[in-house]
């Protein structure tokens, strides 16, 4: 009986210690910013995007606000010049970047300064969504138009042209909030592990997907024209591509399609090279410094376009 009590006592201590460790891990993860992710809808048309009216503090205190239109950024006053930013996770900016530090916000600030005698306020409306490709963007503008904006910025990367339309079940994002921060971490970790078992499409399939995505971009160009919106296409190179270590086979096709549609293109490669290092957080997505460089370059180009309009 004494031995049984000893075993039970050790089990209780072990159980209590385990609970304390799990509680401590949960607290640390919540301090880091996990446990309250941005929530997404699920649609047959554009796939998924953030649900409206969300405000959270995410990774390391970065503020993320999704307005009543489901766009990252503030709700725009009726008389504001609205700049609609379309794209993928590079445009979304990541939950480690505060709303104020996104290249969309910085570009809007530059436009406001350059056009201060012509407009009362300039507001960035960030419609970028993690994991999206051109077919997702096309479906969004076909369904929603330009959200009241007459100035669109479409940022594209080489990875976009390898993607078919992405659905919510293919990415580690949430329609319903997780119960704990550990639950969110486990979902994201599982997605990373499963990704190690995936293989890329054959070269012939990738070529077909790229061609279809260039065609989708051309249809986005046409949608902007129908909406009476000025469109600027922005090319974002990866860090390896900027260093000449990674090809960008879709870029010439995109540039040709844009030239045919008379759509201006801003290639950020020159701005990134001039700025030096420290612009990328992971070789693809931008750091806060990278957002600052991209935002200034985009803002200057937009201001020139709008001044001539």
Q: Can you walk through the features of this model?
A:
By secondary structure, this protein is an alpha/beta fold. The protein has a single domain, classed as SGNH hydrolase (Rossmann fold, 3-Layer(aba) Sandwich), CATH 3.40.50. 45% of the residues lie in helices and 11% in strands. It contains ten helices and seven strands. A five-stranded parallel sheet has the order 4-3-5-6-7, sandwiched between helices. The chain has a two-stranded antiparallel ribbon with strand order 1-2. Helix 3 packs parallel to helix 10 and helix 6 packs parallel to helix 8. The protein is globular. The model has no long low-confidence stretch (mean pLDDT 92).
Outline:
The chain has 309 residues and is of the alpha/beta class.
CATH architecture: 3-Layer(aba) Sandwich
Low-confidence stretches: none
**Discrete helix count:** 10
End-to-end C-alpha gap: 90 Å
Question: What is the domain tally?
Answer: 1
SSE topology sketch:
Layout: H1 2-32, E1 54-57, E2 63-66, E3 81-86, H2 89-92, H3 103-114, E4 122-126, H4 134-144, E5 151-156, H5 181-195, H6 203-226, E6 230-235, H7 239-242, H8 250-260, E7 265-267, H9 269-275, H10 288-308
Parallel strand pairs: 3-4, 3-5, 5-6, 6-7
Antiparallel strand pairs: 1-2
Helix pairs in contact: 3-10, 4-6, 6-8
Salient structural properties:
309 residues, alpha/beta, Rossmann fold
């Amino acid at each position: 009986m004494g031995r049984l009590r000893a075993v039970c006592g050790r089990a209780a201590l072990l159980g209590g210690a385990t609970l304390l460790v799990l509680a401590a891990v949960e607290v640390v993860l919540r301090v880091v910013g996990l446990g309250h992710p941005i929530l997404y809808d699920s649609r047959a048309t554009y796939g998924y995007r953030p649900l409206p009216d969300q405000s959270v503090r995410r990774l390391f205190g970065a503020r993320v606000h999704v307005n009543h239109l489901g766009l990252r950024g503030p709700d725009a006053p009726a008389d504001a010049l609205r700049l609609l930013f379309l794209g993928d996770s590079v445009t979304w900016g990541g939950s480690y970047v505060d709303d104020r530090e996104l290249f969309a916000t910085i570009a809007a600030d530059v436009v406001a300064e350059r056009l201060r005698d012509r407009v009362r306020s300039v507001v960035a409306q960030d419609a970028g969504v993690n994991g999206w490709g051109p077919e997702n963007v096309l479906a969004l503008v076909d369904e929603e138009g330009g959200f009241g904006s007459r100035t669109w910025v479409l940022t594209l990367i080489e990875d976009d042209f390898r993607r078919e339309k992405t659905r919510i079940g293919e990415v580690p994002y949430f329609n319903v909030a997780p119960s704990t921060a550990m639950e969110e971490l486990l979902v994201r970790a599982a997605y990373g592990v499963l990704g190690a078992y995936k293989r890329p499409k054959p070269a012939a399939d990738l070529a077909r997907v790229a061609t279809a995505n260039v065609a989708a971009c051309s249809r986005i160009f046409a949608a902007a024209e129908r909406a009476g919106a000025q469109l600027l296409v922005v090319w974002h190179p990866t860090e390896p591509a900027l260093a000449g270590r990674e090809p960008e086979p879709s870029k010439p096709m995109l540039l040709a399609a844009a030239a045919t549609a008379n759509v201006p293109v801003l290639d950020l490669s020159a701005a990134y090279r001039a700025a030096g290092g420290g612009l990328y957080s992971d070789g693809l997505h931008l750091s806060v410094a990278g957002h600052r460089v991209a935002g200034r370059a985009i803002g200057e180009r937009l201001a020139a376009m709008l001044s001539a309009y």
